[in-house]
Design goal:
This protein is mostly helical and 153 residues long. It is built from six helices and two strands. Strands 1-2 form a two-stranded antiparallel ribbon. Helix 1 packs antiparallel against helix 2, helix 1 packs antiparallel against helix 5 and helix 2 packs antiparallel against helix 6. The longest helix is centred in the first third of the chain and has 31 residues. The protein starts with a strand and ends with a helix.
């Protein structure tokens, strides 16, 4: 199947939008000041990442680049997107009962995001450098989340 590269970037924008909404909601729901501050910082980072992907999307639309994927790879990318997107379903979120569980869940989603971005990096003309920067920032998110999890015990 042939994909326009802008489709991959739209997936990335959706991941960042969902991450932003997730961290915003978790920040509002946390009573712990340090956790609240961390979630606020992560929310700001996700908003910045979204803007970077939107700028890459605007650039890609000018070139209308396309990339062809074998069927198995297409299925893999779709599965990655489904597993990466932060849930909007409050039933899933309501099962996360404390900050430690929320942080553990967020770590998993950050890892999924890194995997997806690593897969799409080579598909985006001149965007590889920017996507690598976002990957590195997502890795820092994991470190910050792990540090906070450790503090919470």
């Amino acid at each position: 199947k042939v994909y326009a590269v802008d489709e991959l970037l739209k997936f990335a924008i959706q991941i960042e939008e969902d991450g932003l909404a997730f961290y915003q909601k978790m920040s509002a729901g946390s009573a712990e000041p340090e956790v609240k501050a961390l979630f606020t910082t992560l929310q700001e980072d996700e908003a910045r990442h979204k803007k970077i992907f939107e700028e890459l999307l605007a650039e890609e639309k000018r070139t209308e680049a396309q990339i062809s994927f074998p069927d198995e790879y297409e299925l893999y990318l779709k599965a990655l997107v489904r597993s990466t997107v932060f849930p909007k379903d409050t039933a899933i979120l309501s099962k996360l009962v404390d900050d430690a569980e929320i942080i553990e869940y967020a770590i998993g989603k950050e890892k999924d995001s890194i995997l997806f971005y690593a897969e799409m990096k080579s598909s985006v003309a001149d965007g590889g450098r920017l996507i690598e920067k976002i990957i590195n920032e997502e890795k820092l998110h994991i470190i910050k989340l792990l540090d906070m999890k450790e503090k919470l015990g």
